[in-house]
Design a protein that fits this description.
Elements (H helix, E strand, L loop, with lengths): L15 H12 L6 E7 L3 E7 L10 E4 L7 H6 L6 E8 L6 H12 L6
Antiparallel strand pairs: 1-2, 1-4, 2-3
Length: 115
């Protein structure tokens, strides 16, 4: 079996344009088990490495592909959570067990109950 990261989870995965930023966060964060990625409606992205307890393992980085700066809206509100369209964690191999992944996701992104 190949050692490449095979994303078996359904849902979003890293796009080509995000891979270099993810790699940089991982390289600078030896305790990281993954990188949380938030894709905003404006096209900007926020990312941060996370450790095995769901705590930040790096600073939060916000960027926009092919742009010198993030958009005006993100400059004003720092990429408000209400504008997030997609969120996921890009796991580093070996990824934590599924149960641990869920605990980390819940801590990073929160949980929502519906009635």
């Amino acid at each position: 079996m190949s050692k490449k990261n095979k994303n078996k989870n359904k849902g979003p995965s890293a796009e080509k344009s995000e891979e270099a930023m993810i790699g940089g966060l991982i390289e600078g964060s030896p305790e990281a088990v993954g990188v949380a990625v938030l894709r905003l409606a404006c096209g900007c992205r926020k990312m941060a490495a996370v450790d095995k307890t769901g705590e930040p393992a790096s600073k939060v980085v916000i960027y926009r592909d092919n742009a010198l700066n993030v958009c005006q809206q993100c400059q004003e509100d720092n990429g408000a959570f209400v504008r997030v369209q997609e969120s996921f964690i890009h796991w580093i191999n070996p990824a934590p067990a599924a149960e641990e992944q869920q605990k980390i996701r819940d801590k990073v992104f929160g949980t929502v109950t519906t009635h």
